[in-house]
TrEMBL record:
Residues 1-492 form the PLA2c domain. GO terms for cellular component: cytosol; nuclear envelope; nucleoplasm. Pfam families: PLA2_B (PF01735). PANTHER family: CYTOSOLIC PHOSPHOLIPASE A2 (PTHR10728), CYTOSOLIC PHOSPHOLIPASE A2 GAMMA (PTHR10728:SF39). Keywords: Hydrolase, Lipid degradation, Lipid metabolism. SUPFAM superfamilies: FabD/lysophospholipase-like. This is PLA2c domain-containing protein.
């Protein structure tokens, strides 16, 4: 939704002659998928119609073949110390939507986009988000640097992910590619419980497709088959528990197979009984059971099949976006002490905290005058702008007050302007509104819900048209606000 909506909006901004007024293009979640596609083409804003057609052709074309997915996942696993579910998400999910494996590097784009807005991809630091630290949560990645937008700590983008000690790069790792970056930014397709079920099912499908490939490459047919069976039973057992179904048949199969592999030794011991009625207890039970089964199974495999085991362990531990902390062991009293002490940090979709990248734009050095907020959220279209205003108030960051008429919450208009003293002007544009959808807002939201497969050609065209109307219908209003900001700057 955000990917296609942003594309439709940019096309109309270009037709209105306003695209070259934009200095920065910052994205969160699905909008970063659109950005990644656009910035494949040097100076894309000078030939947007052609680039748009190329993107739509790819999105409506065939997907990535399983063999290429397997190869990419193996490269991810072999090429880094910190393998996580983000790597799995990139290969199994992102490729289904963007229909390609983009191996390009973000830092390679530094000198290719002199005519385009400067791209900024945003995520959040999971540890800070969980600690309710709103200032230090915001993390941005651009062709030049990666780091904390408000804290002010950055590292060169090509070195993000490498292991540092007191500012020295002691274990360089290859720069992440654009497919992985899209997974890092866009991994919040559903709430936690539904997300877990969704990924386990994806892993199950992947294992089924992968096994025939493995059969031709691996040794020892008996052990290979038994190991595969344990993993498939483990996936099915997790899915059964998540769906509230009795998993005893899968558990018994796992125990029997592992015991056979172990020469009759009892390899899994559990002292607690699984209680499906207590969801939290069942979750903890399955976390421990999955880790135990994987640890036992790993002694029988090496190389490629071990990736399967690692994937299951990452699922049990729910590890996403894990990277080395580039500030580890530095002596800088201006930085938060937790950043200086930790060895690793986990990064995730910023939409889980605030589904709009305001805080990359509110970085003090950028001195932003006008923000055009294109809101592609599934639910309340004012949650992001209100959330940003509340957070800015707590953090003492200049931001206008946001007052929304109560009747607009259910029936949003297509154009809002918020202004404040010594604060940037914020133009807020909800994707679905009474102007472009009439009385059918809920129908549009339902048709373009977050959790669904890739769009048909017709769905892409319709969504681009709806998003584009938010710009074309407000062309003069946008020009007025841009002119007002210019005049304000001239009179300072």
């Amino acid at each position: 939704r955000a990917m296609v909506g942003l594309l439709g909006s940019l096309v109309q901004l270009d037709k209105a002659g306003l695209l070259d007024c934009i200095l920065y293009l910052s994205g969160v979640s699905g909008s970063t998928w659109c950005m990644a596609s656009l910035y494949q083409e040097p100076n894309w804003s000078t030939k947007l119609e052609t680039v748009k057609d190329q993107i739509i052709k790819r999105l409506t074309g065939p997907g990535v073949i399983w063999g290429d997915s397997c190869k990419t996942l193996k490269e991810y696993y072999d090429g880094k110390d910190k393998f996580s579910l983000t790597d799995v998400w990139a290969v199994l999910v992102i490729t289904e939507y963007v229909k390609e494996i983009d191996k390009c590097k973000l830092s390679d784009q530094r000198d290719q986009h002199n005519e385009d807005p400067f791209p900024i991809y945003t995520v959040t630091d999971k540890q800070y988000k969980q600690s309710k630290d709103e200032k230090d949560s915001w993390f941005e990645i651009s062709p030049h640097e990666a780091g904390y937008s408000l804290t002010g700590a950055f590292v060169g983008t090509s070195s993000f992910g490498s292991q540092f000690d007191n500012g020295s790069n002691k274990n360089p790792e290859p720069e992440m590619d654009m497919l992985y970056l899209q997974a890092l930014c866009g991994s919040a397709l559903a709430d936690g419980h539904e997300n877990i079920k969704f990924i386990w099912q994806k892993i199950k499908d992947f294992f089924k497709h992968l096994f025939p490939i493995m059969q031709s490459e691996m040794f020892d047919e008996m052990r290979k088959g038994k190991g595969y069976q344990v993993l498939m039973d483990l996936v099915d057992m997790n899915l059964a528990v998540l769906n509230g179904k009795e998993p005893s048949a899968f558990e018994q199969s796992i125990r029997t197979t592992l015991n056979e592999l172990g020469g009759g030794k009892k390899l899994i011991c559990t002292t607690e009984k699984l209680n499906l009625a207590d969801k939290q207890a069942a979750k903890l039970y399955m976390k421990q059971y999955t880790e135990d089964a994987c640890n036992n199974l790993s002694s029988w495999f090496s190389s490629w099949p071990f990736i399967w085991i690692k994937i299951c362990k990452c699922m049990a531990q729910w590890v996403w976006g894990r990277k080395y902390d580039f500030l580890h062991n530095m002596d800088d009293k201006t930085m938060p002490s937790t950043l200086l002490k930790s060895e690793r940090r986990d990064y995730e979709d910023a939409g889980l905290l605030l589904n709009s990248p305001y805080f990359s734009m509110l970085r003090e050095e950028r001195n932003i005058d006008l923000i055009i907020s294109l809101d592609f959220s599934e639910g309340n279209p004012f949650m992001t702008v209100r959330g940003a205003a509340d957070m800015c108030k707590k953090l003492k960051i200049p931001f206008p007050e946001v007052n929304i008429p109560s009747e607009d919450v259910e029936k949003p208009k297509d154009f809002y302007v918020f202004k404040g003293k010594n604060a940037p002007t914020v133009i807020h544009i909800p994707l679905f509104n009474v102007v472009n959808c009439g009385d059918n807002i809920e129908a549009w939201r339902k048709n373009y819900r977050t959790v669904q497969g890739s769009y048909s050609a017709e769905m892409i065209t319709d969504l681009m048209d709806v998003a584009g109307k938010n710009i074309s219908n407000n062309r003069e209003k946008l020009k007025e606000q841009i002119q007002a900001v210019i005049e304000q700057k001239l009179h300072k």
